[in-house]
Design brief:
By secondary structure, this protein is of the alpha/beta class. It has nine helices and eleven strands. It has a single domain, classed as TIM Barrel (Alpha-Beta Barrel), CATH 3.20.20.70. The structure holds iron/sulfur cluster. Iron/sulfur cluster binds next to loops.
Length: 261
């Protein structure tokens, strides 16, 4: 079986515990305005401009983003760094794009990683209906589950369609999966008001299994990719946030009893 991905990053330290290899699936059904991997969004191959160096000369050229690989090829790649996973408590993270859009391939990769005793993590935005969700929950060790906004108007304006699926999938994942951490990308103009956090806390109150939240302050990494893809970066000149810009939100979650990572 083959999957379609656009990158494999070794020695990743922000995509779950320990040192990890992150596999970036190609294709996403959402269009977050701040997405720092816009080349991941189309499901097929994408052309992106970049500076190419031939000898001493540089010139602009286009490269193809996205390639297919088999489960065997993927497992061979990720097992190379087993020693780092074992020493750091790390493993393999399946990210994107949206990994649940290739649920069959994902489930097969998870099963094979399990045979290899590798810790696995799914980084998902959750807006996908799939009849493989149960299987994926049972095979994966950890879910990093994005909640961007639970306000229907804001979700529609800044993220896309599928908020009700995000919510119902999270309720299901929290019942079946071993461990879930909520990840909230903190985005100026989208979800920094107290009411935005309150909506998330009120929803999570109905899912007592979830106790941990990670805040991801907005950054501008990837903004240049929009030009290279012939697109407009809709966040404009919005400056990136520092950790101190999200301390208020951190406090609101802590006051509600959550551990904020
Ligand atoms: S869910 Fe992730 S990959 Fe998809 S558009 Fe949003 S930020 Fe980008």
């Amino acid at each position: 079986m083959k999957g379609f991905i656009f990158d494999i990053k070794r020695y990743a330290i922000h995509d779950g515990p320990g040192i990890r290899t992150t596999v970036f699936f190609k294709g996403c059904n959402l269009r977050c305005r701040w997405c720092h991997n816009p080349e991941s969004q189309p499901a097929g191959e994408t052309l992106m401009w970049q500076t190419l160096k031939v000898g001493e000369r540089e010139h602009a050229g286009q490269r193809v983003v996205g390639y297919s690989l088999t489960v065997d090829e993927l497992v061979a790649r990720v097992t190379r760094d087993r020693i780092f996973y074992e020493e750091s408590g790390g493993g393999v993270t399946f990210s994107g794009g949206e990994p649940l859009l290739q649920a069959e391939f994902l489930a097969e990769c998870l099963a094979r990683c399990r045979e290899q005793h590798l810790h696995t993590c799914i980084d998902t935005a959750g807006a996908v209906r799939t009849n493989r969700l149960d299987e994926i929950c049972r095979l994966a060790d950890l879910f990093l589950y994005d909640l961007k906004s639970l306000n229907p108007r804001k979700f529609h304006a800044h993220v896309g369609e599928g908020l009700e699926i995000v919510k119902s999938n999270l309720e299901h994942v929290a019942r079946v999966a071993k461990e879930v951490i909520i990840r909230v990308p903190v985005i100026p103009g989208v979800n920094m008001e107290r009411g935005d956090t309150r909506e998330i806390i009120d929803f999570l109150a109905g899912i007592p299994a979830i106790r941990r939240v990670q805040l991801l302050p907005y950054h501008r990494n990837g903004a240049d990719k929009y030009t290279r893809l012939g697109k407009t970066y809709e966040m404009g000149d919005t400056p990136g946030l520092k950790q101190e810009n999200v301390t208020g939100i951190k406090t609101w979650f802590q006051e509600a009893g959550y551990e904020v990572l």
